[in-house]
Amino acid sequence: MAEHDAPRRIGNSMGLVMTLALMILLVGSDEMVLSPILWQISNAFRVSVSQAALAVSVYGLALALGAPVLARVGDRKGAGAALWLGMAGFVGASILCAYATSFLEFLLARFLSGLAAGLTVPSAYALAGASVSDEFRGQALGWVVSGWSWSFILGVPLATWVDRDLGWRWMFMAFGIAAILLLLFMAWSLKRSHLFLANRNAAEADERRAAADLFRLQGVAALLIATFGNMFGFYGMYALFGAAWHLHALSSHVQSGTLLLAYGIGFATSAVTGRRADRWGRQRTLVISLVVLTAVILMLPYSMKQIALASIALFVWGVFQSLTVTLLTASLSEYSEVHRHQIMGWYSFATNMAVTLGPATMGWLDVRAGYATVSVLCAAITAAASGSAWLASKTAPRNLRESVGGRDRVS
Description:
Blueprint: H1 14-32, H2 34-45, H3 49-52, H4 54-77, H5 79-99, H6 103-130, H7 137-166, H8 168-193, H9 202-210, H10 220-248, H11 253-267, H12 270-280, H13 282-299, H14 307-333, H15 340-369, H16 371-395, E1 403-404, E2 407-408
Antiparallel strand pairs: 1-2
Helix pairs in contact: 1-6, 1-7, 1-8, 4-5, 4-6, 4-15, 5-6, 5-8, 6-7, 6-15, 7-8, 7-11, 7-12, 7-14, 10-14, 10-15, 10-16, 11-14, 12-13, 12-14, 13-14, 13-16, 15-16
């Protein structure tokens, strides 16, 4: 067995895993930070706020469309090389944002940031999945996925503090400097973890010839559909929560923002829940997690009469949403060593299309039928995602049905 194929416990690659989690934190912060500073962008370039919001749309479009295309770079060059390229692009795009002299330049810089994220995120997931053996993959990806929650809890507040004290241009410069530091640390952690991911053995070459079309891998399409359904249901509800809380609970938006910290704290448990899922069986637990999410989404509008009940609902929502994301990334990453980057690229595409479509369509429904009706539709879509995940567990290849840690991973 080649050294890079040897089973690895997560402790052997913890430095790399934490570096990848910090990269996700940085990319997530960059993605979400425009919302609180949009009015400053509007003033700086003398455009309306609605025009400034195009920077958000351009970023999301580049990320959604770029991820499945750019993921081929990872398949051809290796996970480490793809991540280097993605983060180097992130550094360049951040500097361009900081020095943009016109709104058109700023839009171009945000488009490049989205492309960089489209290469970085799937590569980080793929590298995390490849850095440990199968029985520790859920735990490793749980740590990496937790970077999204820390971008919400820590990254965006820190970025807005830099913006407040030094200005938004320095904020983007800080993103670029942080990316350079993470690239240096990644080089060190890759060396310490002894990963030789650029090597390709004969078995991998045979797999490439036998599975030229990744969608012929049974279960991949079903899990991607489950990803879209889960993210659509989540973002359809999450994007409208603040307005719904203000309307139904007659409380301030500040209080709704504070309440969402309960969700963020719940989401941050992904490292712990990912470890448990490795023991219980990932695809079995995924189906259960989506069923729980269906129930939570249905109950959420009715929890708003009491702040304690709403906090509990949001915390549970965060726990099971983070578990679902971890399980989806772990399950998809183990289908094919050769096509791992492409699969994770399509995962990012499914996620970001849901981010684009969920809030828009559910916002239209909310105006006409209310948040409770939105919850019914989002719950139905999430339930359909659980059905798709169950189908994936039944059509998974034989090697994914083998036990991990003494437990059946699929049935």
